[in-house]
Every structure is written in structure tokens, then in C-alpha cells.
Write a structure and sequence with these properties.
The protein has 2 domains: about 70 residues, no CATH class; about 110 residues. The protein has 6 helices and 4 strands. Strands 2-1-3-4 form a 4-stranded antiparallel beta sheet. β3 and β4 form a beta hairpin. It is elongated, with a radius of gyration of 41 Å. The chain starts with a helix and ends in a 17-residue tail after the last helix. The N terminus and C terminus are likely disordered.
């Protein structure tokens, strides 16, 4: 009857009960929400607690046993920040897993430095064969150019009288020589790139092989600029 005539007193009695034995409303649901807010104050209620919206809340049964944990509720910006952090963590885990996979594959392919040196030499040998072919083609073009210039000597006094076919032959020789030069430059850059790749792999492999596996630098390693 006192509670009916004095509602404020009834509310005060309810919070006093929450602090001691759990909320009166929880007797029907069997759930009691408890948490400690950011100031260190402990709260107890029969429903989710607004003061602890940013932190976990324990949901206990009538016996005091924790039934579940209610996760924090966040604003849209906070959820976006959390999701971004989670994505970054997942991407980092995926990156590490991919790196480990590549390391295992690298070790399977190159169990020791001899295997790595052997493949480097094979790849560079293929590039050297192409370079040698280009250089032979350049030598042929130089010989052809010499023949053309010899024929043009007959028209030194008046180059305009040189036949059209001879002029076309000279232009074609010049164009082909430029093509071969560009192709040779490309092959030399490719050789440098291959050496750099094998050097980088070797540095990583020496770490994976362990301290006892470090050997002398490969003789082809310093050939990048050749």
C-alpha cells in the first residue's frame, strides 16, 4: 500500500533490491543485467543498461550464473571503425599466410643454394643465347651496310643519281639495325631483372635455410650489368 501511494519510494526500493538480490522484474524473466560503466560504477538491472552501451554486459540467471554476455552497442561510425580494423587484421593474416605459403613453395623448389644457382644459370643462358643471336644479326646488317656504302661510292659526286632500289635498301638496313638495337637493349634489361630477382630470392632463402646454409655469392650474381 505504501508503494501504491508513494511511487517514488517504490522506485527507490526497487533499485535497493537490484543492488542486493537482483531486479524484481528479473524474477519473471530470470535475467539480471550487470556491468561496470566507464567510471567504474557497477550497475544491475532487469534490462540492458544504457550506461554500459559501450561495453559488455553480463546476463545472469536467478542463481547468479552468467548465462550470456551482451556485446557492446556502437554508433555507425564506431561500427565502421571496428569493421575497418577487423578487415585490416584479416588482410594482414591473409598476407602472412600467403607469405608462408610462398616460402614453403620456395623451399620445395630450391632446397639448397646449388639448386638455386643452377636455375639462375639456366635462365641466364637462355637470355645469352638470344643476345648472341641478336649480335649475329647486327654483324650481318653491318656487313650489308658496308656493301651498300660501297655501291653508293659510285654516286658520291651526285647522290641524287643513286637508284631508288639502292636508297630503299639503305633505309631498310638502317631501320632493321635500329630494331635490333632496341631488342638487344630489352634483352640486357631483362638479364638485369632476372639477376635482381634471383639475388632477392637468394637473400630470402638464406634466411629460410638457416645460418649454416649461407654460402659464397653465386658467380652469376654479379653479372647483372653484363
Amino acid at each position: 500500500m505504501i508503494a501504491a501511494r508513494h511511487p517514488i519510494a517504490a522506485v527507490m526500493c526497487l533499485f535497493a533490491t537490484l543492488g542486493a538480490t537482483g531486479p524484481a522484474g528479473a524474477q519473471a524473466t530470470g535475467e539480471i543485467y550487470t556491468c561496470v560503466d566507464r567510471t567504474g560504477k557497477r550497475h544491475t538491472s532487469d534490462r540492458p543498461i544504457a550506461a554500459c552501451i559501450d561495453r559488455e554486459q553480463e546476463v545472469r540467471g536467478s542463481t547468479g550464473t552468467v548465462r550470456k554476455v551482451l556485446p557492446p552497442s556502437y554508433t555507425r561510425e564506431e561500427r565502421a571503425a571496428i569493421e575497418a580494423r577487423q578487415r585490416a587484421e584479416e588482410e594482414e593474416k591473409a598476407r602472412i599466410a600467403e607469405e608462408r605459403r610462398r616460402e614453403r613453395a620456395l623451399l620445395l623448389r630450391y632446397p639448397n643454394q646449388a639448386a638455386h644457382d643452377r636455375e639462375r644459370a639456366e635462365v641466364l643462358s637462355q637470355i645469352d643465347d638470344v643476345i648472341a643471336a641478336v649480335q649475329r644479326r647486327e654483324d650481318n646488317l653491318k656487313a650489308q651496310r658496308k656493301e651498300i656504302e660501297t655501291e653508293l661510292e659510285f654516286y658520291q659526286s651526285d647522290p641524287s643519281k643513286a637508284p631508288a632500289w639502292l636508297k630503299r635498301k639503305l633505309d631498310d638496313n638502317t631501320a632493321q639495325f635500329e630494331v635490333q638495337k632496341r631488342f638487344l637493349d630489352t634483352q640486357l634489361r631483362e638479364k638485369q631483372r632476372i639477376n635482381a630477382r634471383f639475388d632477392e630470392e637468394l637473400a630470402r632463402l638464406r634466411q629460410l635455410w638457416g645460418p649454416g646454409a649461407a654460402g659464397p655469392v653465386s658467380p652469376v650474381s654479379g653479372a647483372a650489368g653484363r
